[in-house]
Every structure is written in structure tokens, then in C-alpha cells.
């Protein structure tokens, strides 16, 4: 029998959903201005918040970010590297694809607890200061990457953001018990 809940739980998105951009955009190529990305993201966020409220919207962005981080890690990263090399790879790729400038401030090898920063963040750098952290998608994205690499479930919370008046976004990552 058709089960609607089973259907809803399945991810329709996978890395292949992105399609063959190089072939599809032979003249325009893979890049576009940040404002196009932000227009898309912030108008979707606005519409979701109007319909479902802020809390649900934040949750949706975090979950979507996590799915994205999992797919990104599985398709873009060498997961067999030792920790230091893995971090170096992650920093390089964040810079190459212009997500931001990633730094690991702390990583506790025993607990898996980490503090990460992203400078010039794709989602928030340059935004008006509202006093609220806005990088919920990044929270999920980082949690997804950490989960795939460490095989542990992570919760990532942004504690500083451009939108709270900080120059970098700072994220606290914890293994979910
Ligand atoms: Zn931020």
C-alpha cells in the first residue's frame, strides 16, 4: 500500500540533481554573482517564515544544509585522509568554490567537539546587522560534512555571525549523544 510518510522521508535530492552544468552552460560557465544566490536563498527563507514561522524555517534550512553537506562530502572530498590533511583539503575546497575562508580553532580528538570559523561567508558576510545568527544552512552543511568524515552524528550551532556584528561566523560543533 502507498505510504505517504515513507514517501516524505526519502530524499529526492542527490548529487546528480545538480546536473551537468559544464555541458549545460557552455557559454556562461559555472559561476554567478553572490547576489543571485542570496536573492534565491533569502526570498525562499522569507516565504517559508511567513508560512511556517521562524523556528520551522530555521529547522528546514538546517536539515537542507545537512543533506547538502552529506552529498558534498561524499562527492567532493577524499574521506580517507588523516585529520590534518582532511582539514587542509576542506579549507582549500571552501576557498576554491568560494564558500568562505574556513579555520578550525579547536578540535578535541577525544570528544569530537570543535570550534570552526568561516570568514567572508557566502551566506552572511556584508549583511545588515540584526543581532541574530543567520547561517542555519551552514550549521547543517558543516554537521553533514563532519558526520560523513567522523561517522558520528553532529549538532552545529553558530555562535557569532556577520549579522550579529562579528567579522567571522563561528560555529560550535558537538557530537550528538
Ligand atoms: Zn554567519
SSE blueprint:
Blueprint: H1 4-9, H2 21-24, H3 34-52, H4 54-76, H5 83-96, E1 101-107, E2 114-119, H6 136-150, E3 154-160, E4 168-175
Antiparallel strand pairs: 1-2, 2-4, 3-4
Helix pairs in contact: 3-4, 4-6
Would you kindly provide a written description of the structure presented here, covering whatever features stand out?
- The chain is of the alpha+beta class and 177 residues long.
- It has a single domain, classed as Trafficking protein particle complex subunit 3 (Muramoyl-pentapeptide Carboxypeptidase, domain 2).
- It is 46% helix and 16% strand.
- The protein is built from 6 helices and 4 strands; from the N terminus they run αααααββαββ.
- α3 crosses α4 (54-76) and α4 (54-76) crosses α6.
- The structure holds zinc ion.
- Zinc ion binds next to loops.
E-strand count: 4
Low-pLDDT windows of residues:
none
Whole-number radius of gyration? 17 Å
The dominant shape is: globular
Please, how many helices?
A: 6
Helicity level: 40-55%
Mean pLDDT over all positions: 94
H/E element string?
Answer: HHHHHEEHEE
Beta-strand content: 15-25%
Question: What does the oligomeric state look like here?
Answer: single chain
Major sheet strand order: 1-2-4-3
Main β sheet profile: 4 strands, antiparallel
Q: Any ligands, ions or cofactors bound here, and which?
A: zinc ion
- CATH architecture identity: 2-Layer Sandwich
CATH topology tier name: Muramoyl-pentapeptide Carboxypeptidase, domain 2
Total number of domains: 1
Structural class: alpha+beta
Instruction: Report the CATH C-level class.
Output: Alpha Beta
Distance between the ends: 35 Å
Looking at CATH, the homologous superfamily is Trafficking protein particle complex subunit 3
Amino acid at each position: 500500500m502507498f505510504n505517504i510518510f515513507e514517501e516524505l522521508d526519502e530524499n529526492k535530492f542527490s548529487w546528480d540533481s545538480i546536473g551537468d552544468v559544464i555541458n549545460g552552460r557552455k557559454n556562461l560557465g559555472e559561476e554567478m554573482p553572490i547576489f543571485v544566490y542570496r536573492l534565491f536563498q533569502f526570498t525562499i527563507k522569507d516565504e517559508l517564515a511567513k508560512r511556517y514561522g521562524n523556528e520551522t524555517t530555521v529547522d528546514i534550512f538546517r536539515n537542507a544544509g545537512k543533506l547538502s553537506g552529506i552529498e558534498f562530502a561524499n562527492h567532493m572530498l577524499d574521506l580517507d585522509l588523516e585529520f590534518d590533511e582532511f582539514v587542509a583539503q576542506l579549507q582549500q575546497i571552501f576557498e576554491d568554490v568560494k564558500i568562505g575562508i574556513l579555520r578550525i580553532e579547536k578540535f578535541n580528538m577525544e570528544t569530537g567537539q570543535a570550534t570552526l570559523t568561516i570568514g567572508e561567508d557566502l551566506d552572511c558576510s556584508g549583511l545588515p546587522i540584526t543581532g541574530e545568527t543567520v547561517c542555519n544552512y551552514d550549521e547543517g552543511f558543516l554537521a553533514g560534512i563532519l558526520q560523513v568524515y567522523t561517522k558520528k552524528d553532529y549538532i552545529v550551532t553558530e555562535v557569532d555571525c556577520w549579522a550579529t556584528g562579528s567579522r567571522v561566523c563561528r560555529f560550535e560543533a558537538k557530537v550528538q549523544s
